[in-house]
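Hey, can you fold this?
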Amino acid sequence: SLVFTRFIDMATNAVPRRQIVSRIAAGVLGGYVFTWGFIALSIALLFAVRLDFHDAAALGGILGLLLFLGVFLWAFAASSVARVWLVLAGGGALMTGAAWLVQRAIL
């Protein structure tokens, strides 16, 4: 029957479970790392331009929340899971390192 044929077609074209778990992990964990790096860098840069620390932390946190939503959704929309991991983990590490350098220069 036509319904059974469509069901079989959907089952054969199903996404592997490992890829689904990887996308979820990339969205949650990779998004966290990327957002954490962004918030650390934004607080350091805003404080470096003489914005009060608490204002810099509040602004960085608000922008970080919006960024997390964006990267979380992008993790599921992107065509390559490897690219998602590379951008989120690599970008988070780079921003965290840059924040560390800015903080060393300030203090």
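Oh, and this one too while you're at it.
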Amino acid sequence: LDYFQPDSWAQALAGVRAVFLVRPPAIAKVEETLCPFVEKAMTEGVELVQFLSVAGAEKQRFIPHARVEKTLRQYPGRYTLHRICRMPTYRTLSKTAVSSCPPGTVR
């Protein structure tokens, strides 16, 4: 999978039912990479996208995570937003990452 090569996405998503998406620090222009990848995942039948976001993404719309969250909300597929604010929170995140959550759940 190469976020900069959209031609690689269909093969990477073939047979995939769920995606755990983490924004690589090197990718700031999510409108050209992660957002179209999310759109492709939703149209290819991925049932659940879990996105590792950051605390405050819902209020600070200028950060890349907020734009990915907005893209997820535009699709009827299931998604879970994990907003991590400090490392100890990761333990909670690990437990919720495997749970089944209704569409639009924020943990």
